[in-house]
Amino acid sequence: MSASQNLIKSSHLVSQGAEAASRLSFPCLQKYQCPKVYKAHLTPDSPPLLLKYRFQKQYRHPSLDVNLTRSRIAGEARALLKCLRSGVNVPGIRMVDATEGVLGIEWIEGQSVRKLLPGESEGDDEGEGEVGEEPTDEEKLDALKEYGVSIDQLMSLIGTEIAKMHLADVIHGDLTTSNMILRRPSSSSIPDIPTQTQLFLIDFGLSYTSSLIEDKAVDLYVLERAFSSTHPDSSLMFTGVLAAYQKKMGEKRWGVVKARLDDVRLRGRKRSMVG
Amino acid sequence: MQSFVFDHIPNNNIAYFALYSPVQNPAELKRRIIEAAKIEGEEGDKERDAVNFAFIDASLITSKLHLETAIYQAILAESQGSLRTKTVHSEILFALNPTNNITEAIRRYGVSDSTKSLLIAHITDKSKSSSAIEEKLNKVVDGTMVSFKELDAITDWDRIKKYYKLEKESKEKGAIQSQRSFIDNVVVSSVAMKTVMQ
Ligand SMILES: Nc1ncnc2c1ncn2[C@@H]1O[C@H](COP(=O)(O)OP(=O)(O)O)[C@@H](O)[C@H]1O
Ligand SMILES: [Mg+2]
């Protein structure tokens, strides 16, 4: 058996398949190659990794499949590196085995934002197949307190990080509250520096590089829709996200993105009236 | 001497490594490595075995994770029959360099006449003990083996910033520890994803 297959065998399954929001917005893309994710260690003393494994589908031509897997992993890794270099909080890359379809990234100790905000419970057919139970709204707010940030501050962290990513011309392509992790303050790797709670963007499987206003506006719109479908009564929260985004982008850049976002919203509304 | 043990790798699953600082005979080491590749017959095999290590300029290594990542990608390439260089040891140097130029990788990351500190690695399987490796190593290296912790004072952050074009970006990180942790993360990530870089 190959090295990466053995590595996966020795690790723990974290979740399986894609989450609800992205499956709804990108049904065709998600059907092909949903990754499985595992927590692993390269050596017993190494820091933990998150392995994303895109298993090969049998029905497609094998060599074509390897190339598709390879280019998806390459795309995700390149977007992560571009973000890292630009100072966006994303997991570092720790190992790549494109032949076997495995991407290993830095394990971020914390909690997904989706699980820290009030919202629908899982368990229906839109569940993301994660191991473990969904906490109640009250438990979520208690958990958020442990991180020492309020909901407002959390929204501000989100808006700032997305703006940093857009300033680097990276479009996420699947912004949802599941694809953001609030990192526990104690788990930073720098020993001498008092660490604050930080927000990390994850899951760059659908990301791409673009400087187009349209792409940035659509990125924000996807998140707005994700907020309203996963977290009821969240429109004020999303306003907080945009306020921080505006601040980080600067007035001039924000002006054009804002105008385009209004446009995208209008198109979205028209489409839902027709369909 | 320390080691990384990759239990899930079918063969060659242990990497011994040691930090030597200072090193007294870098020029001789370099000459021996070059000569060993040319000598023919049994004598050549013996000499190649004597220098069968990855000799890495320690001043270009940012952390233990950096070394581990380069070693891991080299072992992975070997296990898949996709080495870009002649041996798993030269592959480590290749993995460390941001470009695909093998000569440049060896010139930058290998031993040169002016090398002061060396990180030396040997990849093998569990049947070989660390004392056997250490004995072999002490025959070729004239220098002092020190604790890996000493690397902190050896790393040449300015040169690494230059190779990875991170001068401007790292300045924005403020405190020196934040800068170093930022550079380390970018460097480790670049090594890890080198096979899908282009
Ligand atoms: N770096 C990471 N550290 C810790 N957990 C992670 C990390 N990356 C992803 N996860 C967890 O795994 C889940 C799935 O990963 P993700 O990259 O979003 O893949 P996908 O949504 O395509 O299945 C995330 O929702 C998160 O809970
Ligand atoms: Mg996801």
Automatic annotation (TrEMBL), chain A:
Keywords: ATP-binding, Kinase, Nucleotide-binding, Serine/threonine-protein kinase, Transferase, tRNA processing. It comes from the Eukaryota. Residues 116-139 are annotated as: Disordered. This is non-specific serine/threonine protein kinase. Gene3D superfamilies: Phosphorylase Kinase, domain 1, Transferase(Phosphotransferase) domain 1. GO terms for biological process: tRNA processing; tRNA threonylcarbamoyladenosine metabolic process. Its EC number is 2.7.11.1. Residues 121-139 have a biased composition (Acidic residues). InterPro entries: Bud32, Kinase-like_dom_sf, Tyr_kinase_AS. Belongs to the protein kinase superfamily. BUD32 family. It comes from Dendrothele bispora (strain CBS 962.96). It catalyses: L-threonyl-[protein] + ATP = O-phospho-L-threonyl-[protein] + ADP + H(+); L-seryl-[protein] + ATP = O-phospho-L-seryl-[protein] + ADP + H(+). GO terms for cellular component: cytosol; EKC/KEOPS complex; nucleus. SUPFAM superfamilies: Protein kinase-like (PK-like). One of its GO terms (molecular function) is protein serine/threonine kinase activity.
From TrEMBL, chain B:
GO terms for cellular component: cytosol; EKC/KEOPS complex; nucleus. Keywords: Nucleus, tRNA processing. It is found in: Nucleus. Transmembrane segments: none annotated. Pfam families: CGI-121. GO terms for biological process: tRNA threonylcarbamoyladenosine modification. Its main location: nucleus. Component of the EKC/KEOPS complex that is required for the formation of a threonylcarbamoyl group on adenosine at position 37 (t(6)A37) in tRNAs that read codons beginning with adenine. The complex is probably involved in the transfer of the threonylcarbamoyl moiety of threonylcarbamoyl-AMP (TC-AMP) to the N6 group of A37. CGI121 acts as an allosteric effector that regulates the t(6)A activity of the complex. The EKC/KEOPS complex also promotes both telomere uncapping and telomere elongation. The complex is required for efficient recruitment of transcriptional coactivators. Belongs to the CGI121/TPRKB family. NCBIfam families: PRK14886.1-1. This is EKC/KEOPS complex subunit CGI121. It comes from Dendrothele bispora (strain CBS 962.96).
